[in-house]
Amino acid sequence: PAFSLFIFTIARDPLRIIILIAGAFFWLVSLLLSSLIWFIAVKASDPQDERLQKGLLIFGVMFSVLLQEAFRFLYYKLLRKAIEGLVALSEDGCSPISIQQMAYVAGVGFGLMSGAFSMINLLADALGPGTVGIHGDSQLYFLTSAFMTMVLIFLHTFWGILFFHGCEHRRWWEIAAVVIMHLTVSGLSFRNPLYVGSLVPSYLLMAAAAAWAYLLSGGSAQNLRRFLLCKC
């Protein structure tokens, strides 16, 4: 899905490509810092204490989510400054890209890098050793991981729109909603291998976030109906 979004909505505009790459870089830095904190915590603890290690894993995931959203806020501030610079340099006093478009492209950048790392981890597990489901466990690990990666890519895109809108209009409850949704989706992964318990709520949250982002972007039921009916 990230590749499709890139080809159809971003690839033709050099400025959007720059914003996309920068957004992916911000997500990567947040992952690097959270991984470093988690690695230090694991090395400084007792590796034989399974309960402690599980607690550190939960802490690492929650800390990573909060750090990602903090970097999303820093990226918004950076793009806001960039818009001011573009307006100052333009002849007509208008920015060549709106904050709504920046929010969308930045969200795709976050989702693109998130999906890439999820795929890398999945491929690393596929190398073995062992066979999925050999001891009677679910054989849907790779399939559900693919669907979970897809939902996270779309969610990051929608979260980018919601988060930037909240920052732009000082609606802090919208920012809080994004953080809560992100924490919820990440926390649902701990229900695996009960995949229905994690996939179904995640997709429901994605549908709600998509509808919310669509409305905040100026969409309406009439526009959606005309699009589905292929009317101009």
Automatic annotation (TrEMBL):
Recorded hits in Pfam families, A to Z, give: Aph-1
Q: Does the keyword Protease apply?
A: no
What subcellular compartments does it reside in? Membrane
Q: How does it sit in the membrane?
A: Multi-pass membrane protein
Keywords, A to Z? Membrane, Notch signaling pathway, Transmembrane, Transmembrane helix
InterPro entries the record matches: Aph-1
| Chief place where the protein resides | membrane
Give the residue spans that cross the bilayer: 17-41, 56-75, 102-120, 140-165, 172-190, 196-216
Question: What is the superkingdom listed in this entry's lineage?
Answer: Eukaryota
A GO cellular component annotated for this chain's UniProt record is: gamma-secretase complex
The GO annotation for biological process reads: Notch signaling pathway; protein processing
Which interval of the chain is the signal sequence? none
- Write out the function statement from the record: Potential subunit of the gamma-secretase complex, an endoprotease complex that catalyzes the intramembrane cleavage of integral proteins such as Notch receptors.
Q: How does it assemble?
A: Component of the gamma-secretase complex.
Q: Which protein family is it in?
A: Belongs to the APH-1 family.
Q: What is this protein called?
A: Gamma-secretase subunit APH-1
Organism, scientific name:
Leptocoma aspasia
The root-end lineage is: Eukaryota, Metazoa, Chordata, Craniata, Vertebrata
Q: Which gene encodes it?
A: Aph1a_1
